[in-house]
Amino acid sequence: MNASLLSRPGRCAQCQRPLARCLCPLIPSLEAACPVLILQHPSEARHALNTARLAYLGLKGTELWVGEQFEELGARLAQAHRPVLLFPGPQAKVAGSTGPEEKPDLIVVPDGTWRKARLILHRNPVLQTLPYWMLPDGEASRYRLRKAPDPQAVSTLEAIVRLMQIMEPERDFRPLLRPFEQLIEEQIQAMGLDTYQRNYPTSR
């Protein structure tokens, strides 16, 4: 499903936020260090904190496909010479630990909860034939409205930003996080500081 088909009345056609809280002025336009294909579970497309869409809008060379099963995925992967799958596992190599000869020309990123991301892998077996990459340990996620089971778990946007930074350390991809941080602040304000601190006592 094409990402452009997700617009709803009363909302910005790009960032999908209510028009009064449009995030587009905060979204940069950066060249990707490597083309990215995000495979987004449909439930994430409707989520208020849709970080994959922020990556799609702010990073040139990014594709956003929405669904569980993708008939055209095999043909898309065949267009790449060295596609990789960003997904942890015992067989995964740590991003940045490989030589330049193994630099990918397409990074596939499943977007959803762990259960739904695994469902995407199950429904699209061709993904399981790709080399797996995982992120090295890093700082805690800025996603302060999520209780992640793993302290190293990050949002899709954060994962992509970290990966771009690893691939091209001389560039600064942090501007991609600006609309994400604004979105978090808006959500905290909407729920109220007391409610936020009561439900997320360890967040900063």
Automatic annotation (TrEMBL):
Q: Which SMART domains match?
A: DTW
Keyword Transmembrane helix part of the UniProt annotation: no
- Identify the keywords attached in UniProt to this record, alphabetized: S-adenosyl-L-methionine, Transferase, tRNA processing
Q: Which intervals hold domain DTW?
A: 8-192
Question: What are the BP-aspect GO terms?
Answer: tRNA processing
- What is the top-level taxon of the source organism? Bacteria
Enzyme Commission no: 2.5.1.25
Q: Does the keyword tRNA processing apply?
A: yes
As recorded in UniProt, coiled-coil segments are none
Please report a single Pfam family linked to this protein: DTW
One GO molecular-function annotation for this sequence? tRNA-uridine aminocarboxypropyltransferase activity
Q: Which family does it belong to?
A: Belongs to the TDD superfamily. DTWD2 family.
Q: What is this protein called?
A: tRNA-uridine aminocarboxypropyltransferase
Q: Which species is listed as the source?
A: Alcaligenes faecalis
